[in-house]
Amino acid sequence: MEEINKYIQNSSETGGEIYNLIEELFPICRSITGNGVRKTMDIIRKHIPLEIHEVKSGTKVFDWTVPKEWNIKDAYVRNSKGEKVIDFKENNLHVMSYSVPVHKTMTLDELKPYLHTIPGNKDRIPYLTSYYKENWGFSLTQNKFDELCDDDYEVVIDSSLEDGSLTYGEYYIRGELEEEILLTTYTCHPSMCNDNLSGVALITFIAKALSKLKTKYSYRFLFAPETIGSITWLSRNEDKLKNIKMGLVATCVGDAGIKNYKRTKFGDAEIDKIVEKVLMHCGSEYYVADFFPWGSDERQFSSPGINLPVGSLMRSCYGFDGYHTSADNLCYMNKDGLADSYKTYLEVIYTIENNRTYLNLNPKCEPQLGKRGIYRMIGGGSDYPFDEFAMFWVLNMSDGKNSLLDIAYKSGMEFRRIKYAADALYRVELLKLV
Amino acid sequence: MEEINKYIQNSSETGGEIYNLIEELFPICRSITGNGVRKTMDIIRKHIPLEIHEVKSGTKVFDWTVPKEWNIKDAYVRNSKGEKVIDFKENNLHVMSYSVPVHKTMTLDELKPYLHTIPGNKDRIPYLTSYYKENWGFSLTQNKFDELCDDDYEVVIDSSLEDGSLTYGEYYIRGELEEEILLTTYTCHPSMCNDNLSGVALITFIAKALSKLKTKYSYRFLFAPETIGSITWLSRNEDKLKNIKMGLVATCVGDAGIKNYKRTKFGDAEIDKIVEKVLMHCGSEYYVADFFPWGSDERQFSSPGINLPVGSLMRSCYGFDGYHTSADNLCYMNKDGLADSYKTYLEVIYTIENNRTYLNLNPKCEPQLGKRGIYRMIGGGSDYPFDEFAMFWVLNMSDGKNSLLDIAYKSGMEFRRIKYAADALYRVELLKLV
Amino acid sequence: MEEINKYIQNSSETGGEIYNLIEELFPICRSITGNGVRKTMDIIRKHIPLEIHEVKSGTKVFDWTVPKEWNIKDAYVRNSKGEKVIDFKENNLHVMSYSVPVHKTMTLDELKPYLHTIPGNKDRIPYLTSYYKENWGFSLTQNKFDELCDDDYEVVIDSSLEDGSLTYGEYYIRGELEEEILLTTYTCHPSMCNDNLSGVALITFIAKALSKLKTKYSYRFLFAPETIGSITWLSRNEDKLKNIKMGLVATCVGDAGIKNYKRTKFGDAEIDKIVEKVLMHCGSEYYVADFFPWGSDERQFSSPGINLPVGSLMRSCYGFDGYHTSADNLCYMNKDGLADSYKTYLEVIYTIENNRTYLNLNPKCEPQLGKRGIYRMIGGGSDYPFDEFAMFWVLNMSDGKNSLLDIAYKSGMEFRRIKYAADALYRVELLKLV
């Protein structure tokens, strides 16, 4: 898996490509079902051969039921002068997701209970949903709301809520082993970038890179609506769960903030140790949070009956300034941040792929490295052509139980440094793979 | 056990009642045996139906022997002018506890070896005892000592040290379970308040409150002389120890200082976790100390052959300024401190009673809380009518092994918050009691 | 083992004697083999009856082979005026250890690749070796190097590298038990003091002291060349390893720096806890480092196929300013540092010898210490003739599993204080040895 380094080295360039994909997906009005999701999948399929699944409305998925499919053509509020004072075509956040069809004339007072704003941030449109209770509503900025005067308003939501299906995409890469790594992201949010077109685009490019590499583990990429999508996938794939070794949920990975890792519920699972080791040596600031049982789809993967070690590697965590509003737009995206997220995910995968456990074949005292050509020849000086410190750690700890990651932790050294030392020792047959 | 909240809410008022009981008990001259203890028990019995036990002098109790009973009518030192320069009737600390009878005339020089003062605190009378070696003595302030002139002094201790018995009181409340909680305090100190009329009075009122409630656990309240009393009780009740789930020793609970918890010898027993969780959220400063094998009766409960998880929840720990002197008087008592100690003990009992373990009956992914009416209906906003964060913690961790207390610790939330969330989930049949 | 205290009390005087031995050994040119080592052993044998072992060149020792024996009579570089510009007789560091014989005339340019200096410390001669590759070289100060002018130089190394043997010394003291404590030091360094004549001389005097005492454990002292010496010993004594309970490598123990303990690979072995407890109460500053798999012979003892709990108790760790140069000379030695190292090693041995585990024979409640004459007779005061606090800790924790060291840790008390309390309790038959 040294070939992945090529992708890591090109991450800066890839940051731009990820941004371009976000830009292409931005205008589409997505929800947990509907044609917006299908359009999104079509675009992703230009990069990776996503397999599309459609699950019928009414299907029972654990405690939940797949809802009706929602589609929307247009929506507006028009005043008596014929001016659209709220217009879905300007910003699809203006309509509460899953709004039922409406066509009536209402006074301002009648309309007000259906209008939602953020009084404390007067220029942002809030993002609202009502998936499981029939309802309708408009979101708008407080500024626009304040300009509305008494009038008779024509209120139109040209939507449909009918039996249909829930759409999700899946891409599976078979590696040398059946054991698999699960990388998921969610596709249900309309025109917002960090949450979560950034995750969608990042996972697309990670999958694209891995599709060109020979991997030890198998990889599964899941693009599904949040909550109901992961629940649907889990309820249909219980037989596959035994193969999942670890996973990550990708969300909020495109902004300029520092990297932010939310641990699995176990707190010290292999994926936790891997991500934290990568972050420790990443050279920039980061934050690690313990698991909490809300947030994104790690909630479902971590429920006591599923219990998978799934963490979430983000930049600014959900709840950032502008979260779930029109402020989470293309301006909030940062190409360097996207590139760094891409690089970090690849470093994590590099570590997953290379975390082997060896047995020292010369366990009694140190082997004589010099006669094998991997040790300095003049003692006492300070000229160290070989990384003997890392080699000594690997030799000392390779009792068949400690992995290279364990050795990296104990020594305080970067995983790669330990890995390269192990490679050198393996080449001269001082190590055996366990 | 939500009814206990009524007592918690009224703790401020109860603080005053506890103070009144201390005031009533203050003048009595107690020791490890004798009529002062019996008088004390009679007064406590006005509040709770204490069962009184008398254990004969000479009875073997483990390595110890119940000593002779000591009683005292009067004691003084009178100068040649007929003035009582030391008078037991002024303060019963003037006489060393267990002083044998004396009636002789002595010069000052002869008397001096029997006079005890605190040179560094000239206005305090020290509290001294000589239970296990026949001896006699007077305590007085250094100031008074300094005024004594050469003279012939009449020295009188009108005491008796004879076969009799050791008196202790016990009150047992049978709960739903045979498993019991032990709350002990000691009754052997003469006129000193924080050590330990505060403990005696507090436990009286805790027992009074619990006597009116239906409890899950049984409760045993022990009022006995320190050391010899708890040893006596333990030696006579070895068969009961298997039922004791945990316990607390109440002492020094009446002053204005911060709360102070001395852990059990185990350091992380359930009672430790409960008391510390209550303290964490008490809103005021507190201190937690690891176990040390001196102090009060937790020494006996923690001996290697008894090994019970018994901690001690105090305010200013023994050794406070004025400890074991006449300065530990009614002025040292603080009604707010007493009220807060009462409230804290009740909060601990609330937590003991409600610390259940549940099993999530819908373990695969999250259950749909909305369809059960315990979840907000519009997503994305910030209006949270239900405590979904606490509910998510309970659902995520209720695998039949984690108790509500464990969940409270992991989540960082107050125990009550977790408990109420579990109640809500239990009502809609998402949880089963383990 | 209270008799060891006499040696501890005299440590200041012994510091001077250790210094004198260093001074006597300093001029000798040692290497990993050769007559310098033999001469060193002869001098040590004036203090302790060291058994000398000779292992033939060519002997296989695990992955290594005992090298040819190296001896040197003289070496110099002489300019055309007949002046010795580099002279082995002035300082034996001038010749790279294991230099093959040389006799030729060379220009400065031809000679330069064989000259080694420390450019950043112009007045120090570096210490260099080439044990396993035939090579030769001279070390000199940068200052001297800078003075060399173009000339024809006569280059002479009058050495021999021939089949012979590797010499090591061993001294074994049989104690009451077969279980043994291993104390090792290395003898291969030429004229340098802290590294490692300080270790050689210290271990000599520790062995000298123990030879006069009756010990519980057996003690083995090893004086061997670093790396190849300990490997040789280990390969010839595999059957003895099962008896080794713990060990220490003595090196760099003679300077004025603070004490420095490098933990065993286990990190919490008994020797780690003992040394750290001694250091905690030593009254001066110290440092504790986790194990790392380079340094001295603890590397070999800690290899995965040997796995012995061997730490290293030093003062300034290798790598100190002047390390492996001519600056590590007699001026770098400090008699107080030597005395303190000696004292500390003896305190460690005192703790090893006395770390017993007892069973409290009166486990139910506290025993009545007063009736056994080991408790104050008047309660309440502050006169504590007996160390009841330490006795309470011993009684409380002596359940047959906790050692005195465990009790010392839990109580925060010095090991001696706990040991003396246990002695008092043992005398009155309250404890039984486990």
Helical proportion of chain A?
A: 25-40%
Largest beta sheet: strand ordering of chain A: 1-10-12-11-13-16-14-15
Note the overall shape of chain A.
elongated
The quaternary structure here is: homotrimer
Q: Count the E strands of chain A.
A: 19
- Provide a count of the helices of chain A: 13
Largest inter-chain interface?
A: A-B, 32 and 25 residues
CATH class category label of the largest domain in chain A:
Alpha Beta
> What's the gyration radius of chain A in Å?
26 Å
Mean pLDDT of chain A: 96
Region (Insert) (chains A, B, C): 56-164
Protein name (chains A, B, C): Putative polysaccharide biosynthesis protein with aminopeptidase-like domain
Pfam families (chains A, B, C): DUF2172 (PF09940), DUF4910 (PF16254), HTH_47 (PF16221)
Cofactor (chains A, B, C): Zn(2+)
Explain what you see.
The structure is a homotrimer of 434-residue chains. With 434 residues, chain A is an alpha/beta fold. Chain A has three domains: 1-65 and 163-352, Aminopeptidase, CATH 3.40.630; 68-160, 3-Layer(bba) Sandwich (Glucose Oxidase, domain 1), CATH 3.50.30.90; 355-431, Arc Repressor Mutant, subunit A (Orthogonal Bundle), CATH 1.10.10. Chain A has helices at 4-9, 11-25, 35-44, 108-111, 142-147, 193-210, 228-236, 270-280, 298-301, 335-354, 388-397, 404-411, 415-427, and strands at 51-56, 60-61, 64-65, 69-78, 84-87, 102-107, 115-116, 138-139, 152-162, 165-173, 180-186, 218-224, 244-249, 259-262, 286-289, 310-314, 357-360, 399-403, 431-433. Chain A has an eight-stranded mixed beta sheet, sandwiched between helices. In chain A, strands 5-4-9-6 form a four-stranded antiparallel beta sheet. In chain A, strand 14 (259-262), helix 8 (270-280) and strand 15 form a beta-alpha-beta unit. In chain A, helix 8 packs across helix 10 (335-354) and helix 12 packs across helix 13 (415-427). The longest helix of chain A is centred in the C-terminal third of the chain and has 20 residues, at 335-354. The model of chain A has no long low-confidence stretch (mean pLDDT 96).
